[in-house]
Amino acid sequence: MKIMLDAGHGYGTSGKRSPDGIREYEFNRSVASLAKELLENYQNVTVYFAHSDERDVPSSERTDLANMLNADCFVSIHANAYGTGGWNSVGGIETYVYPSRPQEALELAQKIQRNLIQLTGLRDRGVKTADFHVLRETKMTAVLVECGFMTNKGEAALLRTPVYRKRCAQAIAKAVAEQYGLKRKSEGPKQYKVQVTFEERQEAEKLAGNLRNDGYNAIIIE
C-alpha cells in the first residue's frame, strides 16, 4: 500500500504562523515524520512525502506526485487559524473531505477525527467538506486534517510540544491502519486465555493439573 503524507505549506509560506511566531509547517512536518515512522511498522506499506524542507512545494506538484506514484491514500496535515491577527477563543479539530463525500475518504476522515479527539481531548468540530486542491485533484482517497488552532493561545502552546505532535501522529496512523486493515510487521501468533471459576479449590487444582500435563501454563488465583 502506498500512503502519501502531506505537511501543508512550507517554511517560507507567508502568513502561516501563530501570533507568537509558530510556523505552521514546522508542526505539520513534525507530525508527518512521526506518522511515517508509525505507519512503516505495518506490513506492505510504503510512505511518501508530498512536501519538502528545502522549498515551498506548490499544491499542484504535490497532487501530481501522488497521482504519478498511484498512491492509495493521501493525508494532508495542517494546523488551523481564525481571524486576521491576534489571539481568539476559536478552537478544536476538524477533518475535511471533498464536497462529493467519497465513501472511503469519508470513512477515513471519520476515523481520523474520532482518534484525534480521543487522544487530544480538544473540541470536536466534526468532519466537513471543502473544495481544497489536494482533495479535488488527487485520484485516490484524500483527506485534510486540521489539528488545532494556531490563533488559540492554549492550542498554540500544545502545537509546540512533542507530546501533542506524537498524539496527532498516532491518531492519523491508527486511523489509516483501521481503515485499510493493516497488520503490524512484528505481529506474532494470537494468544487466547480462558478463565474458569470453581467454588471448591480441589476442582480448580484438578483442572489446572490436567492442563499442565497437556503443556498449558495454568495458574490458580483465589
Automatic annotation (TrEMBL):
Q: Quote the cellular component terms of the Gene Ontology held in the record.
A: outer membrane-bounded periplasmic space
What region holds the MurNAc-LAA domain?
63-177
Q: Which UniProt key words apply to this protein?
A: Hydrolase
Instruction: Output one GO MF annotation.
Output: N-acetylmuramoyl-L-alanine amidase activity
Q: Which domain of life is it from?
A: Bacteria
**What biological process terms from GO does the record include?**
peptidoglycan catabolic process
Q: Does the keyword Hydrolase apply?
A: yes
Name of the protein in its database record:
N-acetylmuramoyl-L-alanine amidase
From which source organism is this entry?
Cytobacillus oceanisediminis
Q: What is the lineage of its organism?
A: Bacteria, Bacillati, Bacillota, Bacilli, Bacillales
